[in-house]
Amino acid sequence: MAKTSTVTENVRPQRIGDSLWSIAFVWFLFAAVSFLSSQVPAVNEPHYLCKAKAFETPAWCKRDFFLRSANAHYVFLKACGKLTPHLSLPALAIAGRLASTLVLAIGWWRLIGAVVPNGRETAWAMCLSAVLYALLSQLGSFSGEWLLGGFEAKVPSWGFALAATAEMIRAQSSLRLREFLLAGICAGIALALHPVVGGWMAACLFGMGAVFQWKRWISPPAAANGPARTVASGPWQLLVFSVAVVVSSLPGLWPAIKFLTRQTASSDDQLKASMIQVFWRLAHHLDPTHLSRRQWAYAAVLLIAIAIAAVSLKKRAARSGSESSGYSALATVFGFSSLIAVIGIAAGWHSQSFAEMYLEFQGWKIPATVLKFYPFRTFDGLLPIVAAIGLTLLTLHRLSLPQSEKAPENGGIKTRRITIVGLLVMCAFSMAWRQGSPAPPGYTAAQFEDWKQACDWIRANTPKDSLILTPRESYGFKWFAERAEYVCYKDCPQDAKGILEWNDRLWFLHDWTLKSSGDAVYSDSDLKELRQKTKCDFVLTRILGPFESQPLWSSREWRIYAVPVEN
To answer: CB of 544 within 8 A of CB of 526?
Structure first.
């Protein structure tokens, strides 16, 4: 016994060291890919972080109706909002990316530790799987889900969701309440941070636990091979998990429930708002008929990789007489996410145009209701994760280290592993660098520089309570100019009343633009009508014009006009 204890004591520091350096490696990898592929601010950072600033400081851009709209991510906005008096928005984005990728790296470490319990293999599996994930996630997506490309609520939420998955996998073999409790707490935190990500993942984990409980029920283990309490205690274990999820998620779950139930719009207006959100504004995420062939092909290829890995690992376990690997449990979680996605596809598949659907909106209540809860998000998020881990397990099987903890590592195998991981890291960084751009989509580098100069001029030369009419391609205006926008296509509210107002404002501008340009000039009377209907103080434009009045400021691309005050 003493000898066994000594071996364990000698191995433990090595395992701790392996864990620390592998977490640091994955953190560096994820953070580097995030910064290389997405400038600050990334595409969604102005959307969420400006709302967090307004959440904490209501006077900031107080006339911006999006910032005043209902909030669906209470915990995230509250936590980030508390930091805005102390950090600038760029600093908050940078700190947020570093913190959220660290949470993601720790969640990844817990998950790989549950799937690959061999201590010596775990560190290598963690590094290789993380690099493969970084590569696969940059090759595409099924419905636009991403984790490495900015800071928003879903990134730390996924980190806790991965940790919850790890604890749930461990719970299936240990059958201890501790793991079920930890899984529920982590899933609850994920839900509090992002109700959609955390909620769907909690449902998938519950499903995986129920499946394993059912397997134990139809084929109970003998007392010599497993705990005699397995079947009887199964429901209690799932109950502990469920209660832990609900209790730990309450800070975000309760505001989300109030957000859903305290809608002030009529039932018809709520359905119209859902139609606008699902089949127009967010159709690229929510409408299955809007997904491209490339997206379907991406999902098909990774599904084949996952199937091959699952079957191969199951056969290997059967040949060796060992227990089924944790990968089968992970695949079961992924299977439930796939089921949710299939339900979304079946509910939302259509051949009509949005205009046709909107005219007969009453017939689309069920599809719009199902799709607005993002049924593809969990499937899309897990797809490259499960594929990367499966490919890693198959790769490490071919480059196996000695089984004994005391046996020296094979230098050739270790060198090959380091070489493979190093080359893949270079590929991941190269892909991220190529995807990165000094300008956001829709802008050239020169246009974006001029855009920021226009925003700087507005911030320095207009009253803080000004309301600005910005162009449809507006990017991060509140971030750079710190002034309210009349409407921004990107910044669509999430409550029914806000969505309908957003839609009405866009249509008003469409009609006003057509009317004002009818006589080939935007006259002062046109601008006075704009002020009367919108209360806007200034116009920032690139394509509108010519104007009767002279611009207050102009550059190669952008012009700023004052809206005349009514007499």
So the answer is: no
